[in-house]
Design brief:
Blueprint lengths: L5 E8 L5 E10 L3 E9 L6 H13 L2 E6 L8 E8 L4 E9 L2 E9 L5 H9 L7
């Protein structure tokens, strides 16, 4: 992650009513924002439904393009979104066991694709 990330733990309530911490690290630069997070859903996680819901949220933000899921054999997605307000979003999600990982890069320019891929490709999931 470029720069020193700000790390936060945010309490959330999962769909099944269980409590968990969303752990998020982010770094902001003048033209681009980087974020990586994870959330443990517990044993009742429906990976494909969770990814479908996430994809629908991104699709509602603007013109979305899907890419091949980044990790063969693991439930995941990668999308780019040209938002209605001029913001570009690149997002990659991966589910490992009951943990959802989400990496996001946002900017006001589409020129950050090589930096985005370098950021995404540097990610190594932790064991829950």
């Amino acid at each position: 992650m470029p720069g020193t990330p700000k790390v936060e733990r945010l309490p959330v309530t999962n769909n099944d009513g269980s409590k968990a911490d969303l752990v998020q690290a982010s770094a902001e630069q003048p033209e681009v924002f980087y974020m990586v997070s994870y959330l443990d859903y517990g044993p009742n996680l429906d990976a494909y439904k969770t990814l479908a819901n996430l994809k629908a949220r991104y699709a509602a933000m603007g013109t979305m393009h899907s890419k091949r899921p980044p990790y063969p054999g693991q439930p995941g997605l990668e999308v780019t979104v040209d938002c209605h307000d001029g913001v570009y979003i690149n997002a990659r999600a991966l589910i490992v066991a009951p943990r959802l990982y989400l990496m996001v890069v946002t900017s006001h320019s589409a020129d950050y694709s090589s930096d985005t891929q370098r950021f995404f490709n540097s990610f190594k999931p932790l064991s829950p």
